[in-house]
């Protein structure tokens, strides 16, 4: 017990490996997505982006990805792994914050809702305007409801999110 201590990470080495411009670009990109989400859902007065939490989420993401690259001796990771690890760290750090006490408890899960819309958009990719009707609509809505529940209440890690994304993509190929 005497050897336990808090250690705060210094990201200087990671910044030199990844590049400050790459990191700033990712923070800007996610921030713009969050602003668009808040705007689309009329939440500008209700929630805001906690920029320090967002920065830590992005730095933790790049730290994990760099460890994977070093371990697997690869230069680039695939887009599914990128989205999975980003989702995990955004879920963990919760950069969308409520401005005050809100009576609508659905807003308590603003980060999870943002990530759900982000994942849904990623999963549909070019098919974003494809009409989903009938039984497919019911199945897709049930899937999204289950994913939302999972993001809110289950212990999820980047690997389980990655597997879910891979399974969804495989299902699109097999059942289209």
Overview of this protein structure:
The protein is mainly alpha-helical and 176 residues long. It contains seven helices and two strands. The protein has helices at residues 12-18, 20-40, 51-72, 79-93, 110-124, 134-153, 158-174, and strands at 47-49, 96-98. It has a two-stranded antiparallel sheet with strand order 1-2. α2 crosses α3 (51-72). The longest helix is centred in the middle third of the chain and has 22 residues, at 51-72. It is globular, with a radius of gyration of 18 Å. The model has no long low-confidence stretch (mean pLDDT 90).
User: Which structural class is indicated by helix and strand composition?
Assistant: mainly alpha
Helical proportion? Answer: 55-70%
Strand content: under 5%
Rough outline: globular
What is the average of the pLDDT values?
Answer: 90
Task: Give the low-confidence spans.
Answer: none
Order of helices and strands: HHEHHEHHH
Q: Tally the helices: what do you get?
A: 7
End-to-end Cα distance: 56 Å
**How many beta-strand segments?**
2
Strand order of the largest sheet: 1-2
Features:
176 residues, 7 helices, two-stranded antiparallel sheet
Write the layout of secondary structure elements.
Elements (H helix, E strand, L loop, with lengths): L11 H7 L1 H21 L6 E3 L1 H22 L6 H15 L2 E3 L11 H15 L9 H20 L4 H17 L2
Antiparallel strand pairs: 1-2
Helix pairs in contact: 2-3, 3-4, 4-5, 4-7, 5-6
């Amino acid at each position: 017990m005497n050897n336990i201590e808090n250690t705060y990470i210094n990201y200087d080495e990671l910044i030199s490996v990844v590049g400050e411009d790459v990191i700033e670009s990712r923070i800007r990109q996610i921030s713009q997505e969050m602003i668009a989400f808040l705007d689309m859902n009329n939440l500008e007065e209700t929630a805001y982006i906690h920029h320090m939490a967002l920065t830590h989420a992005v730095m933790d993401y790049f730290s994990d990805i760099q460890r994977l690259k070093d371990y697997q001796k690869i230069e680039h990771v695939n887009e599914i792994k990128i989205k999975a690890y980003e989702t995990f760290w955004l879920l963990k750090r919760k950069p969308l914050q409520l401005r005050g006490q809100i009576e609508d408890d659905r807003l308590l899960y603003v980060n999870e809702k943002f990530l759900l819309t982000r994942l849904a958009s990623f999963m549909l990719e070019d098919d974003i305007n494809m009409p989903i009707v009938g039984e497919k609509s019911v199945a897709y809505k049930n899937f999204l409801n289950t994913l939302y529940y999972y993001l809110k209440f289950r212990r999820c890690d980047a690997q389980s999110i990655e597997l879910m994304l891979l399974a969804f993509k495989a299902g699109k190929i097999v059942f289209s």
